[in-house]
Every structure is written in C-alpha cells, then in structure tokens.
Amino acid sequence: MPSLSYRPFKIENLQDPEYAAIYLETLLEEEESNWDRASFESSLRDVLDALGRSKLSLDEFQQYKDKIDNILSQPGSIAIYELARWLEGLGLKLTVKTDANSY
pLDDT of 48-92, one tens digit each? Predict the structure, then answer.
C-alpha cells in the first residue's frame, strides 16, 4: 500500500481559515513545558503555505516567510504584536478569551 504524505492533507485542511485558527489556537494553548519553538515556526509556515498563496503576491509571500523567524526571536510583548499583524495579513486574528476551566 502506498504511503501518503501527511503534509498535503494538512495544508489542504489549513486552507479553511476556521480550521487554521483552531489549529494555531491549539498550539498556543500548549503548556509552556510542551511548547517547542521549532514546531510552532513550522506550523506558522504551514498556515502561510495554506492561506498565503491565495491572499498574497509572490513578493509578499516571501516577505511573510522571511518574517517568521524574526517575529519569534523578538522579546515577548513585541513578538505578540508582530505575530498579530502577521496573522491579520492572512485573514486571521489573535484574540484573548476567558478560560472556562478557571471558573
């Protein structure tokens, strides 16, 4: 039986902005001890591949791709604002919500 690559399937699913938002939200909710920068960076690249090709010109797409590492190397508060702007260009929004588990 031929082996199918998971990445094309993932990229296809991430083309749905709602799915992409839930995907990133889940990654951001990981406990700090489980958080891995390389995995998060790879996930951002996957979301860019899925959503960016239809929303951005080739030059903009490359700029977005180049900016991921820069965003993740910024200090905390700057990184949050930069990530929020980066996501907006892909039609996504970084938000804060209540934690139902804390009530």
Answer: 999 998 999 999 999 999 999 999 999 989 999 999 999 999 999
Count Cβ atoms below 10 Å from residue 13 Cβ, excluding itself.
Answer: 13
CA distance 29 to 90: 20
Q: Please state the pTM of the whole predicted model.
A: 0.86
Helix axes 6-14, 17-28, angle to 10 degrees: 110
In-domain check, residue 102 = no
Confirm whether 36 is domain-assigned: yes
Please tell me the total count of domains within the chain: 1
Query: Does 83 map to a domain?
Result: yes
